[in-house]
Write a structure and sequence with these properties.
Blueprint: E1 2-4, E2 8-10, E3 17-24, H1 28-37, E4 45-46, E5 53-56, H2 58-66, E6 70-71, H3 74-81
Parallel strand pairs: 1-6
Antiparallel strand pairs: 1-3, 2-3, 3-5, 4-5
Length: about 90
């Protein structure tokens, strides 16, 4: 399954703004395929070993939800998707 959490404001220099996370509890290939289908760039992917995810702005979040991403809280996204010891595939 693909999950998205709520938009939150982040202060990060030139990238300040509202962002959310898109992640999966399955294989990372499923997540990459989903992102490709909704037309988002792979450069938004963060390949952190324990919490691989995409950062999305508000417009991209709406695309993800329309394509079937399940809206969860940030806490629930962490519980469902983030792994101890690394991801399931690259």
């Amino acid at each position: 399954m693909i999950y998205v959490d709520a938009l939150r404001f982040h202060e990060r220099g030139c990238r300040s703004g509202s962002w959310c996370h898109l992640a999966t509890d399955g294989e990372l290939d499923e997540l990459h395929d989903f992102v490709r289908q909704i037309g988002l760039p792979r450069r938004a992917f963060h390949a952190h070993p324990r919490h691989p995810h995409y950062d999305l702005n508000g417009d991209a979040r709406e695309l993800a939800i329309a394509a079937g991403a399940i809206v969860v809280t940030s806490k629930e996204l962490v519980r469902r998707c983030f792994r101890q010891g690394g991801g399931k595939s690259a």
